[in-house]
């Protein structure tokens, strides 16, 4: 027995080392963010009144007018153009789901509702381009620090709104820089801590957090969504081909109820 | 409205209209609900005439049942959330079909036009169709 035990002793050490390696490898793995996430809309609404961006003095009245107009039932329509929300509004005010795809060297966010609502976050070590084409979502690079994904975004079009609701927001007017710390606060609750620097409209970087929830048992998928479809109905052209036609529900050809 | 609905569209004839719709009326996409008076939620019964299962928002056209002594039918536009939100709430694009008769609960548009933001629908069978931006129960059991 003693002999056997002497024989197995090194084996036990090896097994212990292997277990340590397996545990440390598991610990080193970043959390899995993949799946469909729904914004915590109730929290968004709390934030609307509790964490206002530090607007520049000349911007503040513009913003306040929008808040007042919404209170009076005459909302300014921040997203009246069928363009994607853009950054940072997608993270701040969306009511729709997005899907996170995790692939080697990259995390991709696919959004619901407007076509091409998409963020690519490069994790392969590349820098930002020196002179990026400006886009509504900008250019994002990221890296993991422990369990937190840090994302740096530049190259955002000046027309992209910093919005606190669908009725209140100001275009960033250029040179915006966004840093996000994305982390899981529960296994299926993700927090996005944003720090938004927009020197044309803000007096200081604005820090705010948004929460997103994942429901793995529900097998949710984001749905295809082209915003412009609300103006169209399926029909036929003169040759009998299936096409979309203007929706004739209102006298003016519009689908939407008149609000203003 | 009726005239336009009866027109036979050709590609040539609809193109200018199409452009005017896209350019002139895009102002209703993705909007705040503040134009609806959520303090005065009301109900009516009626028959679904048309389903626009579209993003960013869905609309149902509903012929409201006339009140006693009322002549003619008023078609209401009932707007509601998006296909994604309703799908996650258990609806399909066939949950409410043209011809369905139901009770509609809605927040009326403040300007008095026959439009509202749909809160829920109760079909004559008793089936209630509701929705929520987030699933009702918390995902975390702990």
What's the helix and strand layout?
The complex is a heterodimer of chains A (260) and B (142).
Chain A: H1 2-28, E1 35-39, H2 41-50, H3 60-71, H4 89-93, E2 98-103, E3 106-111, E4 118-122, E5 139-145, E6 148-154, E7 161-165, E8 168-171, E9 177-186, E10 189-197, E11 206-214, E12 232-236, E13 242-246
Parallel strand pairs in A: 4-5
Antiparallel strand pairs in A: 1-2, 1-11, 2-3, 3-4, 5-6, 6-9, 7-8, 9-10, 10-11, 12-13
Chain B: H1 2-6, H2 11-24, E1 42-52, E2 58-64, E3 74-80, H3 83-88, E4 101-108, E5 115-123, E6 128-129
Parallel strand pairs in B: 3-5
Antiparallel strand pairs in B: 1-2, 1-4, 2-3, 4-5, 5-6
Question: How would you describe this structure to a colleague?
Answer:
The complex is a heterodimer of chains A (260) and B (142). A 9-stranded mixed beta barrel of chain A has the order 1-2-3-4-5-6-9-10-11. In chain A, a hairpin with a 2-residue loop joins strand 5 and strand 6. In chain A, 21% of the residues lie in helices and 32% in strands. By secondary structure, chain A is α+β, with helices and mostly antiparallel strands. Chain A folds into 2 domains: 184 residues, Lipocalin; 35 residues, no CATH class. With 142 residues, chain B is an alpha+beta fold. Chain B has one domain: Nucleic acid-binding proteins (OB fold (Dihydrolipoamide Acetyltransferase, E2P)), CATH 2.40.50.140. Chain B has a 5-stranded mixed barrel. In chain B, strand 5 and strand 6 form a beta hairpin. Chain B is globular, with a radius of gyration of 17 Å. Chain B starts with a helix and ends in a 13-residue tail after the last strand.
